Amino acid sequence: MKEYPSYSVAWKYIKSDYTRYGLTSYPLKIVLFGILALNHCFAYTFWFRLAKVKGALRPIATFMHWRLSRKYGIQIDVQTQIGYGFYIGHGIGVIINPTTKIGNNVNVSQFTTIGAHGLAAEIGDNVYIGPSVCIVNQVKLGDNCSVGAGAVVVKDVPASATVAGVPAKILNFDNPGKFVGSRYEF
Questions:
Q1: Cα–Cα distance for residue pair 71/67, rounded to 1 Å
Q2: Under 8 Å CB-to-CB from 120, ≥6 apart: which residues?
Q3: What gap in Å lies between CA 86 and CA 63, rounded to an integer?
Q4: Comparing C-alpha atoms, which of 100, 6, 91, 96 is closest to residue 41?
Q5: pTM for this one?
Q6: Most exposed: 64, 75, 91, 181, by fewest CB within 10 Å?
Q7: Are 81 and 65 contacting, i.e. CB atoms less than 8 angstroms apart?
Q8: Please, where are the H alpha helices in the chain?
């Protein structure tokens, strides 16, 4: 598992996820527990990030990650490499292979499956993945691309492309990263 070296590193990831949920008008440290109770998608990423740190909170974080995984049908293994600003929309029924590499500012929607057996996808930065998408094999999704609802991606997707269909085909290059809002800036 690729662990974070410290809680301060995990906190930077948590703050980036917090930004993506559009919650920056509220001070993170003050309302953290209220938000964890009200937004289960953010709560999931919060415990996912903390479970990656070898420290005193790991048993609690691992338990909470497991509990929320079972409750909402989200399967994202702690060893999965996910960049800054990860956003789960309508978090239910999300399955991501542990070998998947996800870039920064990526949106994943409900009922999405990424990866089958073996090595999985590599997803670039500022990528939107719509509902009920299946990304199979070891494909690469370039930066700023969008995958339409219900698509089955079996081939690489170039940067700034919008794809949809079964199997997914390129529709255009007109809307690079359009659906990725509240981006975390480095």
A1: 6
A2: 96, 97, 98, 99, 100, 114, 135, 138
A3: 21
A4: 91
A5: 0.91
A6: 181
A7: no
A8: 7-20, 28-38, 40-50, 58-72
